[in-house]
Write a structure and sequence with these properties.
- One of its GO terms (cellular component) is extracellular region.
- GO terms for molecular function: calcium ion binding.
- InterPro entries: EGF (IPR000742), EGF-like_Ca-bd_dom (IPR001881), EGF-type_Asp/Asn_hydroxyl_site (IPR000152), EGF_Ca-bd_CS (IPR018097), Growth_fac_rcpt_cys_sf (IPR009030), NOTCH1_EGF-like (IPR049883), vWF_C/EGF_Fibrillin (IPR052080).
- This protein is mainly beta.
- It folds into five domains: 42 residues, Laminin (Ribbon), CATH 2.10.25; 42 residues, Laminin (Ribbon); 41 residues, Laminin (Ribbon); 30 residues, no CATH class; 53 residues, no CATH class.
- It is 3% helix and 39% strand.
- The chain contains two helices and 26 strands.
- The strands form 13 sheets. Strands 1-2 form a two-stranded antiparallel sheet. It has a two-stranded antiparallel sheet with strand order 3-4. Strands 5-6 form a two-stranded antiparallel sheet.
- The longest helix is centred in the N-terminal third of the chain and has 4 residues.
- It is elongated and about 140 Å long.
Length: 266
């Protein structure tokens, strides 16, 4: 039987030689030496001789070896034995992000641009948050950006000035009277609507003008609709007219127009 042909897991790393009744391994291959057992070969530790020719660390593996460069800032050269400088500026795209990267033998250093500061380990540039110091000089909002910042103003009410720091009031009344039904008055950061038609007041939306509803009258002093107190009614005239007083019902006395309620029966 030729074991070199029939064995499923051939133990010989090199050549298998069939002999009568058995077989033996030829261990004259790189990475192995003869074993006392003719059916196998022993691994040869290449690192035991001159460090395997490695300039840094030699690591023995079964049937071979490999060199490693463990010193920071170096990499394995093309000859797979010596170590050469690692250009961190080319290898790591984020090295010195926010500045300029300068490679040195075994290391590198950063020069940071404006709006960045060098980290404590001097390996990277860290963004400066300008908004943390005096709000970046912005009169209102400040938003930090990578390598910069910008000033912001409340939407619709203000707009950023030409200096990029100040906020200018937007006159909402210039655009369709701010949506007011009658008169629009601009204020700093906002606006308000007024009703110019006598007897009209602002509705709940704060923009539309309307007459007072039934059972209320227009109080010219307060510029609002007022209801008559209990046991009284609106003086003669339409509800929206400037009556400014209510009249007590028959059998009651008082002066509701001057906040004196109608009480008792005459």
């Amino acid at each position: 039987i030729d074991e070199c042909v029939t064995l499923k897991n051939m133990p010989c790393p090199g050549r298998c030689i069939n002999i009568p009744g058995s077989y033996r391994c030829n261990c004259s291959v790189a990475g192995y030496v003869e074993s006392r057992n003719p059916h196998s070969c022993n691994d040869f530790d290449e690192c035991s001789i001159n460090n395997g020719g490695c300039s840094d660390r030699c690591e023995n593996i079964h049937g071979s070896y490999k060199c490693r460069c463990e010193r920071r800032g170096y990499k394995l050269a093309a000859d797979q034995h010596s170590c050469e400088d690692l250009n961190e500026c080319e290898r790591y795209r984020k090295a010195c992000s926010g500045g300029k990267c300068f490679n040195t033998v075994g290391s590198y250093y950063c020069k940071c641009t404006k709006s960045f500061v060098l980290s404590e380990d001097k390996s990277q540039c860290i963004d400066i948050n300008e908004c943390e110091s005096n709000n970046g000089g912005c009169s209102m909002g400040c938003v930090n950006l990578f390598g910069s910042f910008k000033c912001t103003c409340p939407k619709d009410a203000y707009t950023i000035a030409a200096d990029g720091f100040s906020c200018l009031d937007v006159d909402e009344c210039e655009n369709n009277k701010g949506g007011c039904d009658e008169k629009c008055i601009n204020t700093i950061g906002s606006f308000k609507c007024l009703c110019e038609t006598f007897g009209k007041v602002l509705s709940e939306d704060g923009k539309t003008c309307q007459f007072c509803t039934e059972n209320t009258y227009f109080n010219s002093a307060k510029k609002s609709c007022t209801s008559c107190p209990k046991h009284s009614y609106i003086a003669e005239g339409s509800p929206h007219l400037s009556v400014d007083e209510c009249i007590c019902n028959n059998g009651f006395a008082g002066n509701p127009g001057k906040a004196v309620t109608c009480e008792g029966k005459n």
